[in-house]
Design a protein that fits this description.
The chain is of the alpha+beta class. It is elongated and about 70 Å long. It is built from 4 helices and 7 strands. The longest helix has 11 residues. The strands form 2 sheets. A 5-stranded antiparallel sheet has the order 3-2-5-6-7. It starts with 25 loop residues before the first strand and ends in a 12-residue tail after the last helix. Helix content is 21%, strand content 18%. Helix 1 crosses helix 2.
Length: 151
Amino acid sequence: MTENPTDRASNEPTEVPAGALAAGETMRIDTWLWATRHVKSRSQATSAARAGHVKINGESVKAAQKVRVGDEVRLRVEGFDRVLIVRKLLAKRLGYPFAKLCYEDLSEPRPRLGVAFAQRERGSGRPTKKERRDMEKFRGINSDFSADFQW
C-alpha cells in the first residue's frame, strides 16, 4: 500500500530515537544548538557564544557551558532573539521533525517589513521611455546618461 502525500503531516514523529539523546543530564550548549538545527555547524555555535549571542537563563555563556532540560536558551539570530526552552538533550543531528521535539520555541514572530515598489499592470507591455524614467526616478537610479560624463 502506498502512502498518500497528504498523510505525511499526520505521520510526524512523536518521539526522538533513544540513540540520539544525550547519555547524561547535561550537554554542551554549542552541541545542543547544532543538533537542534539552530546553527549550521558547531563552529558557528561556538562563535555565537564567544560573541555573546547565546544566553542560558539570562546569563551570557561560553560554548562549553552545560545546558539542562528546562533551561531557557536565548540565541540572537540576525538581530532578533530566539527564546527556546530545552525539552530534550539531543546529541546527534537529526532531521527537523525530530529536532523540533527537543525544544519549545517561545520567540515572538519576526515583523514583516513591507517595501514599496513600482508595479505595472500585467499585460500592459513594455514601459515607454517616460514610464521607465519615472520608475528609475522612483527607485533613485540616475538614468541621465550625459550626467555621468564630464565633457
